[in-house]
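One record is kept unedited as follows:
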Amino acid sequence: MRKIYYLLLASAFTLSFVACENDDLDSTSIFANDKSTNTTEFDRWLSKTFDPYNIRIIYRYQDYETDQTYNVIPAKLENVKALAKMMKHIWIDAYAEVVGLDFIKAYSPRLFQFIGSAEYRNDGAMVLGTAEGGLKITLFRVNSLDVDNIFIDSISPFPNIESVPIDMNFWFFHTMHHEFLHILQQTKNYSTDFNLISAGKYHANDWINVNDVDAPKEGFVTGYASGEAREDMAEIYATYVTHTPEAWEKILQAGESEADKSGREAIEKKLDIIKEYCRSSWGFELDDLRRVVLRRSQEVLKMDLRTLD
């Protein structure tokens, strides 16, 4: 099943093309049919780093791996390197530290594709990422990274999505955790009590119209979570592990309206079920994972993302 995450832009945008005569050109081809494939230093680093986890990174442009409905551009090599290093440290190593190497080797998505630009729909929506059957995740806007000014916002429950530099949590790591929870859902069943908490309140056909800041009043952490129960569960999981306790409390407070605390209570009940699912079915505490993810997110800010090590 192909899942698509996208953001509805509130305002119109324009695209401009600028010639840069003084840009230094990288000798590594961005196209998959180049003879240099799997022979560069970076390709060897990718293989050494990700093969042990049964993960392959695609960063050269491949027609057959992309949706031909959209016009997209390849990812810049320096940005791919930075994102790959961050992904290893914040995402893979976090699970390995908390649950163990065998866990991430067994259940991680097998393929990650990095695309330089976003995908824009005809209705003005920007695609954040796509996931196919729990096996492949495509991440967009890789070229928007500022390698020397990495920004990871774990304290704002309703982040400024147009901030510069872009928020790595919102654009990338949230999606990774979200999709990983889907893989776990497909492997071991979770309590059906979760589906009953917000039964009758899901916006199956118009979740796109639910603003993130308003969603908690209905018992959802994001507008996307209001679409269906499985996405609700994945959004709570991903939001919780990528945000501080203080940020999470702000989401819960947004679920209160004077004397009405039903939104907050619904989110708290669903989180309790997720924590028990992680504990009883997978052998780890969700709070432990969050502490490690947050710590590693801060460590990344001190890393040299331009070198391979």
User: Anything to note?
Assistant: The CA atoms of residues 11 and 127 lie 15 Å apart. The longest helix spans residues 77-98. The chain has nine helices and six strands.
